[in-house]
Amino acid sequence: METATRRLNDILLAKTSYAMQRLKVRQYSQGNRAGRAMAALLQKKQAQSKIPYLISNEGTKIYNPKDINDELANFYHNLYNLKQDSNTHQPQETEIEHFLDLTHLPPLTRELDTFQVISQLDAKNEIDYSLVHPPRVEKTHIDLELKGSVHPIGSSRNDLFPEIHINLPNERTSMVYIGLSEYFFNSIGKNYFTMNTLKLVLTHEQFPRAFWLRTGDYGTIIPKIEHHYPQSQAMKLELTATKAPMVTVTPQNITMEMTGLLQGMVVLPYLVTNQVFSVNMVATLIADKVQLSGLNLVVSFVVERYKFHEFKSSVGYINVAELESALDHSLRESVLREINDGLQKGIPMPALGNISLQDPAVTITQGCVLVSVDMFYTPWTELMRMLPHKQYSHMT
After folding, report:
1. Containing H/E element for 185?
2. pLDDT digits (tens, 9 = 90+) for 334-372
3. Are 273 and 266 in contact, with CB atoms under 8 Å apart?
4. Which residue ranges does the record assign to the Lipid-binding serum glycoprotein C-terminal domain (predicted)?
5. What are phi and psi of 265, to 5 degrees?
6. Residues 239, 243, 244, 247, CA torsion sign
7. Band of the pLDDT at 167, cuts 50, 70, 90?
8. Does residue 388 lie in a domain region?
9. Are 100 and 45 in contact (CB under 8 A)?
């Protein structure tokens, strides 16, 4: 077990150890004191650690390794090329430490022990892929159980994680298997529902030719509507989720059930609105595409069926069957477009820096989407670009 753990740790730390072996103080004898000091500090900090992210001058986190390297390269290049004269400020070691620790870099962490991995889902939300339990080292593999919880950027939650068992194939031909459970997908839906973002408004401006967005076109569906609104008025439809979406994963199939309230509103002058009708709506969607795009899982849905129930009307009798028929195509198109547009960029999966995935395959099993891939490791040679070109040729 100790051997397996040590081997994995070597892989995780290879990207920094290789570069830092070459970033030794003796190799910067032609540089100035500040450049040598930064090289020494980086060398000291590299032991069993990685740079998980940078904090930019604007206060945002930078996860892209190339952007991290560019930031360090710029800072280091400026230090290395300072003029050695009395008029040029020579940064003290404490100033360099401030840049590395306080201003830009968080404390370096032991990746295998903590695996603090945060992936940005969208502009407002992120996925926490931290470890739930310490890694389990078996004879043939290492098992990492990750949280896979979704929350607004900058916030953290101590969620209770259910015990989830993922069945792996008997014949394992891939290097890595990533199991995305129903809990993971439902965590995404729960977060969006809690943030009150699962809303859709259909207006006459969006659909200028839609007959179902004028009161005068509801004559046969709502017979008494003309008594309340003799002149045809613009309408809008508001669809709001009343429950968090529920995702179910079965062999070869992913379904999502969405429950919401559909309201038909008349838009009067001065932005005054009156409710004409409201109805509860349950829609069942099925995935028609599940695939990988880079490190993102891309899913799109089609509507299998939806049903209206519990009608309420402020204008008398409504022909429910005709209303469903009239709104059928437009609701399907509008809801699907909103959902699939939101999923277009995909769901980022957990990944280690400098590890690229090859030959991916997606299998839908009971309660889980199983992604199998091979890993390809690329040394962190980008870090070597921090060195000025005129000095790089002198390195051994």
Report:
1. helix 182-194
2. 888 888 888 888 998 876 555 666 778 899 999 999 988
3. yes
4. 170-373
5. -120, 135
6. negative
7. confident
8. no
9. yes
In this model, does residue 258 exceed pLDDT 90? yes
Question: Whole-angstrom Cα distance, residue 95 to residue 93?
Answer: 5
Residue 354 resides in a domain: no
Tell me which residue of 354, 352, 337, 345 sits closest to 121, measured CA to CA: 345
Contacts of 245 (CB under 8 A, 6+ apart): 186, 189, 192, 193, 198, 256, 257, 258
Q: Is residue 213 part of a domain?
A: yes
Q: How far apart are CA 314 and CA 195, in angstroms?
A: 30
> 77 and 191: one domain?
no
**Residue 238 one-letter amino acid:** E
pLDDT tens figures, 120-160: 888 888 888 877 777 776 666 778 788 888 888 877 666 67
Domain residues for 225? Answer: 187-343
Q: Which residues pair with 200 in a beta bridge?
A: 239
Q: Could you give the CA distance from residue 221 to residue 320 in angstroms, rounded to a whole number? A: 8
Name the domain boundary from 84, 113, 142: 113
Name the percent of the chain in helix, strand, coil, to the closest 5. Answer: 35, 30, 35
- pTM for the whole structure: 0.64
Do 337 and 219 lie in one domain? The reply is: yes
Structure-block tokens of residue 29: 């004898």
191 and 339 share a domain? yes
Helix, strand or coil for residue 351? coil
Q: Do 236 and 103 sit in the same domain of this protein? A: no
Tell me, rounded to whole angstroms, the distance of Cα 375 from its chain centroid.
21
Output the CA–CA distances (angstroms, integers) from residue 128 to 36, 57, 120, 332, 336, in the order listed: 37, 24, 9, 32, 27
Between the CA atoms of 76, 77, 79 and 83, what dihedral angle is there, to the nearest 10 degrees? Answer: 170
User: In this structure, are residues 67 and 61 in contact, taking their beta carbons and an 8 Å threshold?
Assistant: no
Q: Are residues 77 and 215 in the same domain?
A: no
- Assess whether 192 and 109 both reside in one domain: no
Pick from 158, 160, 110: which is nearest to 135 by CA? 110
- Measured CA to CA, the distance from residue 336 to residue 331 in angstroms comes to 8
Q: Are residues 216 and 97 in the same domain?
A: no
Does residue 335 share a domain with residue 203? Answer: yes
What is the SS3 assignment for 99?
helix
